Amino acid sequence: MIMGHTKVYKNFQTSIPKEVRETFGVNNDTIVEWGIDENGELKVNFRKKVNVEDIIGLIKTEEPTNSVELKKELYK
After folding, report:
1. Fewer CB atoms inside 10 A, N or C side of the chain?
2. Residue 10: its pLDDT value, please?
3. DSSP string for residues in 26-61
4. Quick one: pLDDT at residue 8?
């Protein structure tokens, strides 16, 4: 099913059609992944760009941590 079409411009730039953006929730934080499946057909996938807020709290440790001390360790 074709949802829209675009033109390829100078430097190979293009845009994502409005219908596609709205259907898949594409915004400024979206990464577009291009690939080829086992049948040689083009596959396009949209995923959210991961930022700091997304990963804070994902890892738990048994011992307490001090963010100031961890940052100091980075610059030693």
Report:
1. N
2. 95
3. --TTEEEEEEE-TTS-EEEEEEEPP-HHHHTTS---
4. 96
**How many Cα neighbours within 13 Å face the side chain of 27?**
4
CA distance 60 to 57: 7
Read off the pTM. Answer: 0.61
8-state DSSP, 22: H
Q: Which tens digit of pLDDT belongs to each residue from 11-31?
A: 999 999 999 999 999 999 899
d(CA 6, CA 1): 15
Q: Give the whole-angstrom CA distance, residue 7 versus residue 43.
A: 18
Q: Which two tokens stand for residue 25?
A: 């929730």
Q: What is residue 26's predicted lDDT score, i.e. its pLDDT?
A: 96
